[in-house]
Design a protein that fits this description.
The complex is a heterodimer of chains A (432) and B (323). Chain A has helices at residues 116-125, 138-141, 166-173, 175-189, 203-212, 233-241, 261-273, 303-309, 366-370, 377-385, 389-393, 405-409, 416-430, and strands at 22-23, 30-33, 43-44, 51-52, 57-60, 69-70, 75-84, 90-98, 152-157, 193-199, 219-224, 256-260, 279-285, 293-298, 317-322, 329-331, 344-349. Chain A is of the alpha/beta class. In chain A, a hairpin with a 7-residue loop joins strand 13 and strand 14 (293-298). Chain B has 323 residues and is mainly α. Chain B has helices spanning 20-42, 44-67, 78-88, 96-110, 124-135, 162-169, 175-180, 192-205, 211-230, 238-243, 247-254, 265-285, 292-309; strands at residues 143-144, 158-159. The chains are: A alpha/beta (432), B mainly alpha (323). At the A-B interface, strand 15, strand 16, helix 12 and helix 13 of A face helix 1 of B.
Chain lengths: 432, 323
Amino acid sequence: MTFPNGIRIADRKGATQANPIESGPLPDEIILPLQQHAGAACEPRVQVKDKVLAGQRIAEATAPVSAPIHSPVSGEVTAIERRPHHTGLKLPAIVIRPDGEQTGFDRAKPPLDPDAGDIRRLVSEAGIVGLGGAGFPTGIKLTPPAGARIDDVIINGCECEPYLTADHRIMVEEGPAVVDGLRLIMKCVGAKRGFIAIETNKPNALDLLGGLTARDEQIIVTPVEAKYPQGSEKQLIKSILGREVPSKGLPSMVGALVQNVATAAAVSKAVRWGEPLTSKVLTVSGGGVIRPANIRVLIGTPVRDVLAACGGLSDQTVKLIVGGPMMGAAITDTAAPVVKSTSGVLALTADEIDSTPSVACIKCGRCVEACPMGLMPARMANLIEFGFWDELGGTNLFDCLECGSCAFVCPSRRPLVQYFRLGKYRATRVGK
Amino acid sequence: MADKEFILSQAPHTGTTESVEKIMFAVVYALFPAGIAGVYIFGPRALLLICVCVFTAMATEYVWQKARVKPISVLDGSVIITGLLLAYTLPPNLPLFMAVLGSVVAVSLGKQIFGGLGHNVFNPALVGRAFVQAAFPVAMATWAKPFAWMSGHVDAVSAATPLGLMKFDLKTTAHAKLFFGNIAGSLGETSALALLLGAAWLFYKGYIEWRIPGSFIGSVAVVGGTLWVVNPERYPDPLFSVLAGGLLLGAFFMATDYASSPITPTGKLIFGAGAGSLLVIIRTSGGLAEGVMYAILLMNALTPLINRYTQPRVYGTGEVEST
């Protein structure tokens, strides 16, 4: 079961797919950027020198599309200032020095049988955002636009990026929470069917979740082809439901809602236990990591502490990536913290990356065969390279997912995704 | 503060190990059997012709890139292919100065003037051949007798090609001869076996896409076959049409040139079918016995149009379900 086009690539998950989730370190400093989600940045509700407790809300959502931020530690706020971030910019953040006690914040006990409104409220209050990488506030996602009806909820357990195995381990080790999260989401939006989509390269997860849902007629654990980018929302909806999200539209327009497995598990914990989002499971992998691992890390832990917990880096490391190798961001400053959308930290060696200089497009058409959205990457990139902005307006550039499938297969090693980003930037800033 | 200098660049950070060189040189190697067959059938003069074409092509590209102050990419394999293909489409005993001119024109007017690799509108080797055909029509119609070189009579003996015999004398040629190549013809086109070996290897390596050769050869077989069924006295059988002349060389190695052929899967099918139909029309109703060169050049001209009209449907557009 799959979608058209896409690429079959080595999954490189052997180093960590059987590693149980470990506990992460308690760093000297927790750095919490005020923007860890799609939408508007939060406003701090604490000041320097304030003492905070673990799980305490310290930054508030002030706009409709936003999500609050909670402290993962008990300690003292030492600064509210700009700090390094994985985008390379310095962004405003609340900095906390943990006291090591991990004294918890008293939480109200959630209702035993929450209704849709309760679920939505608890999810929003817990600061949950899409943990697959997009970081969209989940409370908003669980509130479909008026008139939209959600028939099908899909839990995304694909994890199609190479190296990453965090979602895989969550499915294997926190299966009941994932299933409970799915049921809560279905109840919240009134969906009739739930799917848990798992790539075929994760047979133990398929078996386990299949067993947990065997007697639930509304939930179907669905194996999907291990192909990139199977975990892309639009492609997943096409694969499982056979429907396409309209261009410039939302999945709710075709009655679908997709959530990552980690998000589903977090939803369950928030609704059942009132637990706010304060930690994240990451995969630390790549040829340059001394001891690759799947590790549950406190949000705000600097990347350097995460790497140190995995034995540090070898001298062969030439590139550090936050995320996966296809869509992740390269970083140079390991003081940048893990945030809600971080799914992996990769330390790659020279033979794991590609640094071949690019040449002219030879019009071979491999990119056209690879593009999961049915675009013509070569044409769009050539128009951008030579400045044909008017003609570019006639292409579907904004339907590009920036998944990198085209750039992966290009024999000329052209920086196609980079061209598309440039094209989109120019189109939005300069106008057609 | 960075602990060490890490590479900073945009995603994706990994990719295929394919490269332009790998693809080009794979095609060069796939062309070796046809070249070896050509030298075996037509003698050392054929080898000289090949070398002259290839080296002139490389030199021409070097001069152009130096003049345009562009990086010298003569060794990426693409101009070597142009030189080889041009040589393979010429009569083996063609005077060398004509081959030199053809090679210079092929690289200059067929490739460099459009911007170099990836920008050529037409197949460069065929542009060169078209020039030589127009400039030296008699020499381009003087074919060598196969294996005449072995007995020492090289220049004096000429022969008619199977297509020429079919068109002007309504004489057929045995399929076996067409398959193995002991017939008159262009240097690299006569041995179907050698060409098929090279093409099979490219398929095996995954470098050749089946759509263009498939639809090109298929449409020749279908259109040619239909004519033969209707009038077997006048028209050759489809196997003859496929094996004779430059079709196999053209279908596997020339029509498949990336830059001058469509980029979309459907477009490739249309391109091949169009070339095949044009080829049969030229061979049966045109003035020349052979038409592969013009069939491909004409379809090259239509490629931008084909690209525009065969764009794939974008996900989420067209007929889409919504609640």
